[in-house]
């Protein structure tokens, strides 16, 4: 989607460019493609694509259709269709995306909401989590009578049980 392409009839034209030697602050509202290669502080709203160049530093919230991050973004981003974080990319904030692509080496610190489904952080969700189930099973095993024979697969403590039985006799 954001790979370098030869200029031609099918390539997308970038409407707004903030160059590498430019520093700006404020809000940006546009319907076209935005590319930032310099420093921008503020929020960006576009109905199209948003690109953070490799040496760019963006501080603010972004709302767009697609996004590609190769530089640094501090703030939340909402990309309705797709977010790509390249190996040089850093995002420090929450993301809400339709689809997510992260290259090895990229850095992302925050929460992710993907595909329109929110991850439940409720007590019920925590109880259904694998780690919680394992802890429950371990607690049950500890409370069981040590002389009781455990079903196959739950005989982790069988050596300890045998030693205790031998000592008790």
What key phrases describe this protein's structure?
disordered N terminus; disordered C terminus; alpha/beta; 169 residues; 15 strands; 6-stranded parallel β-sheet; 9-stranded parallel β-sheet; 3 helices
Shape: elongated
Strand percent estimate = 35-45%
Number of strands: 15
Q: What's the number of helices?
A: 3
Topology pattern, helix = H, strand = E: EEEEEEEEEEEEEEEHHH
Instruction: State the low-pLDDT regions, or none.
Output: 3-10, 157-169
Q: How many independent structural domains?
A: 2
Question: How widely separated are the two ends?
Answer: 74 Å
Average pLDDT across residues?
80
Q: Measured on Cα atoms, how large is the radius of gyration?
A: 26 Å
Helix fraction bin: 10-25%
The largest pleated sheet is described as: 9 strands, parallel
SSE layout and pairings?
Blueprint: E1 14-18, E2 23-25, E3 28-30, E4 33-36, E5 39-41, E6 44-46, E7 49-52, E8 57-59, E9 62-69, E10 72-74, E11 77-85, E12 90-92, E13 95-102, E14 107-109, E15 112-114, H1 123-128, H2 130-143, H3 158-168
Parallel strand pairs: 1-4, 2-5, 3-6, 4-7, 5-8, 6-9, 7-9, 8-10, 9-11, 10-12, 11-13, 12-14, 13-15
């Amino acid at each position: 989607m954001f790979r370098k392409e030869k200029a031609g009839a099918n390539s997308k034209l970038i409407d707004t460019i903030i160059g590498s030697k430019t520093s700006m602050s404020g809000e940006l509202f546009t319907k076209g493609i935005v590319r930032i290669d310099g420093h921008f502080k503020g929020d960006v709203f576009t109905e199209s694509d948003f690109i953070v160049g490799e040496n760019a530093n963006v501080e603010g919230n972004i709302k767009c259709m697609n996004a590609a991050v190769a530089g640094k973004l501090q703030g939340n981003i909402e990309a309705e269709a797709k977010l790509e974080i390249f190996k040089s990319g850093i995002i420090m904030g929450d993301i809400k995306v339709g689809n997510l692509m992260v290259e090895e080496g990229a850095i992302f610190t925050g929460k992710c909401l993907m595909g329109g489904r929110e991850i439940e952080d409720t007590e019920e969700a925590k109880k259904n989590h694998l780690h919680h189930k394992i802890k429950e099973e371990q607690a049950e095993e500890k409370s069981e009578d040590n002389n009781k024979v455990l079903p196959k697969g739950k005989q982790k403590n069988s050596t300890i049980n045998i030693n205790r039985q031998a000592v008790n006799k």
